[in-house]
Amino acid sequence: MIEYKEWRHVFKLDPDKNINDEDLERICESGTDAVIVGGTLRVSFDNTIDLLARIRRFSVPCILEVSNVEAVVPGFDFYFVPLVLNAGNEYATLHHHTEGLKQYGSLVKWSEVAVEGYIIFNPQSEVAKLTGAKIPKDVEDVKALARLADQMLKLPIVYIEYSGAYGDPSWVQSVRSVIEQAHLFYGGGIKDGSQAAEMAKWADTVIVGNIIYEDIEQALKTVHSVKSLT
Ligand code: 1GP
């Protein structure tokens, strides 16, 4: 069983992006709590299984965030299934989840799966475009979505997704203030240790993605700055 509720810091690697062996080793051996494999575009079975095989040389827990049914690969330690709460197109109907269950429903080990209640904030992000996300306009929108995930749907995880843009810490604080049981992930635009630490004040776990590919040294510094918080 993966104890994701104890994680403070996670790296997210995108199967569609290139990372050399040395950088991958530094990420996996950085002291981060886990590595999530996930992306929005061009995530396939082949590029996902390739990345899993490379990460498996290290002992870090490795989790698949399922982006599409074709890219479901067995052999990960755990699976996160995003459910976009502010989707505005067919993603709001859970059509893709139902199609996935038609193919894999009888095979899934449910003790290895958790659903993430995604709230998408960055309108420029690929995931916002893909899901036609209705971006929260004010703090009341934000709190309502957090309560939808936490209290109405009782999802185990709320994921504040700013992918590609650094978010507003006061909105993360607002989500924190209404959550009663869910574990809170924050991801988006973290470029250095101080930003990671700022979001870690309110989020249970901060997720660091793009900066891995842009500035590996800064990416690595986020681990210590989050882990050294009391
Ligand atoms: C993306 O939340 C993660 O799904 C991390 O975002 O890539 O902007 O760090 P960044």
UniProtKB/TrEMBL annotation:
Mg(2+) binds at residues 14, 40. Sn-glycerol 1-phosphate binds at residues 12, 159-164, 189, 209-210. Keywords: Lipid biosynthesis, Lipid metabolism, Magnesium, Metal-binding, Phospholipid biosynthesis, Phospholipid metabolism, Transferase. GO terms for biological process: glycerophospholipid biosynthetic process. Pathway: Membrane lipid metabolism; glycerophospholipid metabolism. Its EC number is 2.5.1.n9. One of its GO terms (molecular function) is heptaprenylglyceryl phosphate synthase activity. It catalyses: sn-glycerol 1-phosphate + all-trans-heptaprenyl diphosphate = 3-heptaprenyl-sn-glycero-1-phosphate + diphosphate. InterPro entries: GGGP/HepGP_synthase_I, GGGP/HepGP_synthase_sf, GGGP_HepGP_synthase. SUPFAM superfamilies: FMN-linked oxidoreductases. Gene3D superfamilies: FMN-linked oxidoreductases. Its cofactor is Mg(2+). The keyword Transferase applies. Prenyltransferase that catalyzes in vivo the transfer of the heptaprenyl moiety of heptaprenyl pyrophosphate (HepPP; 35 carbon atoms) to the C3 hydroxyl of sn-glycerol-1-phosphate (G1P), producing heptaprenylglyceryl phosphate (HepGP). This reaction is an ether-bond-formation step in the biosynthesis of archaea-type G1P-based membrane lipids found in Bacillales. Belongs to the GGGP/HepGP synthase family. Group I subfamily. PANTHER family: HEPTAPRENYLGLYCERYL PHOSPHATE SYNTHASE, PTHR40029. Homodimer. HAMAP family: GGGP_HepGP_synthase (MF_00112). This is Heptaprenylglyceryl phosphate synthase. It comes from Ammoniphilus oxalaticus.
